[in-house]
Design brief:
With 317 residues, the chain is an alpha/beta fold. 53% of the residues lie in helices and 10% in strands. It is built from 10 helices and 7 strands. Strands 3-2-1-4-5-6-7 form a 7-stranded parallel β-sheet, with helices on both faces. The chain is globular, with a radius of gyration of 24 Å. Belongs to the short-chain dehydrogenases/reductases (SDR) family. One of its GO terms (biological process) is chlorophyll catabolic process. InterPro entries: Chl_b_Red (IPR052625), NAD(P)-bd_dom_sf (IPR036291), SDR_fam (IPR002347). This is Chlorophyll(Ide) b reductase.
Length: 317
């Protein structure tokens, strides 16, 4: 009996030791991935960054001293953009790789390339998007155009988020993912580009789902955020400047890629330093908007009353 009681006591001690060890391991996992401030300069990936808003964002980040990975579907455009930007900012801070975001293998290659070139990926901006450069009723859209829009704007974002999270989870500092929304993100109607608007509407739901999944996995140091550039005078927008109504709103509400980037970049750069919940050690999700509803309403009223911004970008007739 004494021998049995001794053996039982030994087993209990072993069990307590194992429980304490498991608890310590769990605590270490929980605390080791707590979000910590990430200080600049940053390592940044921007998809769709050879022109338009993406290119303007890249230039502004580079001016702030960050290192940027340029990317788009066209190898020729990536090479040209890297060459041009390197002349101003140096070859060490400008890298590039072509990537079709709707292709899983290419997105995976981009993530691995960015990690190898940057050392760590602090910020990943999913900017690549399209409306197939066509405006018209959904029922008149070609199957090919609809597939391109959905594969780029939805599947592409999902694949990029997946790979960015994979890389950032391996980093002690984690990282921050920003998804670029657009017209339709608030649920409002987008006639003549319904497919585009529908793809942008899904981004807020995707962000919430990813945040929940990361929370369930106890990944506290990876943040999912949304960016809203408003109306920007890119090829995407200007290809629809073919009616009095569209011309009115473009002149009234749109701004250049450079103006938008100069607003967004400083705010994006502050998030890795500041947006941390000190109690939970998690990243607070952010939504950075250039053109808020209040700002849009004010500009419309000013235009109606004073005529300000008439013919700013396109002749209204």
């Amino acid at each position: 009996m004494l021998r049995g009681r001794s053996g039982m006591q030994g087993s209990c001690r072993s069990l307590r030791i194992r429980c304490h060890a498991q608890a310590a391991t769990t605590l270490q996992r929980t605390t080791s991935n707590r979000a910590v401030p990430i200080n600049p300069p940053y390592g940044i990936v921007i998809t769709g960054s050879t022109k338009g808003v993406g290119r303007a964002l890249a230039e502004e980040f580079l001016r702030q001293g960050d290192t940027v990975i340029i990317s788009s579907r066209s190898d020729e455009r990536v090479t040209a953009a890297v060459s041009e930007l390197s002349k101003e900012f140096g070859t060490e801070r400008v890298k590039g790789l072509s990537c079709n975001v709707s292709q899983a293998s290419e997105v995976r290659n981009l993530a691995d390339y960015a990690r190898d070139q940057l050392g760590k990926v602090d910020i990943w901006i999913n900017n690549a998007g399209t409306n197939a450069y066509k405006y018209g009723p959904l029922m008149e859209s070609t199957d090919e155009d609809l597939m391109e829009i959905v594969q780029t704007n939805v599947l592409g974002i999902m694949l990029c988020c997946k790979e960015a999270v994979r890389v950032m989870r391996e980093q002690s500092t984690g990282g921050h993912i920003f998804n670029m929304d657009g017209a339709g993100a608030d649920g409002g109607a987008t006639p003549r580009f319904a497919a585009y608007g529908a793809t942008k509407r899904c981004l807020s739901q995707l962000a919430k789902s990813l945040q929940a999944e990361l929370g369930q996995a106890q990944v506290k140091n990876v943040g999912i955020h949304n960016l809203s550039p408003g109306m920007v005078t890119t090829e995407l927008l200007m290809s629809g400047a073919d009616s009095p109504v569209s011309k009115f709103f473009i002149n009234c509400l749109a701004d250049t890629p450079e103006e938008v980037a100069s607003f967004l970049v400083p705010r994006v750069r502050r998030i890795p330093q500041d947006n941390i919940n000190p109690l939970t050690g998690t990243v607070n999700p952010s939504y950075v908007q250039y053109l808020t509803k209040q700002k849009a309403f004010s500009q419309i009223i000013t235009r109606v009353l004073t005529g300000k911004r008439k013919d700013k970008f396109v002749k209204e007739g």
